[in-house]
Hints:
The protein has helices at 17-30, 38-41, 48-57, 66-79, 91-96, 113-122, 146-154, 169-177, 206-215; strands at 4-7, 14-15, 86-87, 104-108, 132-133, 162-166, 181-185, 201-203. It is of the alpha/beta class.
Amino acid sequence: xxxxxxxxxxxxxxxxxxxxxxxxxxxxxxxxxxxxxxxxxxxxxxxxxxxxxxxxxxxxxxxxxxxxxxxxxxxxxxxxxxxxxxxxxxxxxxxxxxxxxxxxxxxxxxxxxxxxxxxxxxxxxxxxxxxxxxxxxxxxxxxxxxxxxxxxxxxxxxxxxxxxxxxxxxxxxxxxxxxxxxxxxxxxxxxxxxxxxxxxxxxxxxxxxxxxxxxxxx
Length: 218
């Protein structure tokens, strides 16, 4: 029986692409460069700074300029973190109804903890989030199962009684390897064939996610 739901953040609970991709565009604009269209970047939002700096500037972690660009990206993003980002339609009522179903919830994200905490706070989700695991909280980020296992431990809930919900294959791999049920959020930033992830459940929108949550109590 599922007792706790663990959500990825970007592309699962919150549409953060406008601010993540907007940060790249701000950096390009200040350098007099052509702007990468939002539609060319938004599917990479779950990949964070690494993926966005690659498409926006052709930078990869082994390049000498990468650390400075990443630091600039993070500082600029923090300044506008919830300027245009929004909670997906249907998510807030879903979360609000979990306690009545006897379900707990938390967030397991690869976003740095300080940014995830600030985003959840600005969107009014932090107070009800029982556990928050950032990309720098556990021994390794997803797809390692370590963040999922740490979240379950902090909730004092067996991993087998948790479900990991996310829009990236890393979420599904991490949850599966932690012994959790997995739910692929097909409405998020899908960058690879979602059926190939072999999640236990596939939902195409938040209405289907709500229906799955409702089925847990039956």
